[in-house]
Design brief:
The protein has 98 residues and is α+β, with helices and mostly antiparallel strands. Helix content is 35%, strand content 34%.
Length: 98
Amino acid sequence: MANAKYILLVETEVLPQYREEVVEALQTCLVHTRAEEGVEAFYQTAHADDPNLFVFLEVFASQEAHELHMQQGYTNTFFSALEGKLAAKPKFTRLAEL
């Protein structure tokens, strides 16, 4: 299934003192990401009862589209902006469409 959608659920906790800074970096990256060919959905959310616990749902048309996203300069800039601002390593869960 080389053309199967590539779906990720990403969960990460941001240190409270960096929340606004991380949100700003997220918003900048989101504009570029949603314009990418092969991005079908890209949601950035936070838990309603814990605003520092971020949850992202990312749907790419294929694994290749995800790999292309990961090679973009703005994606790398975003990951650099996260350094030292997370409470723990992000949890990545690969999902499969039913």
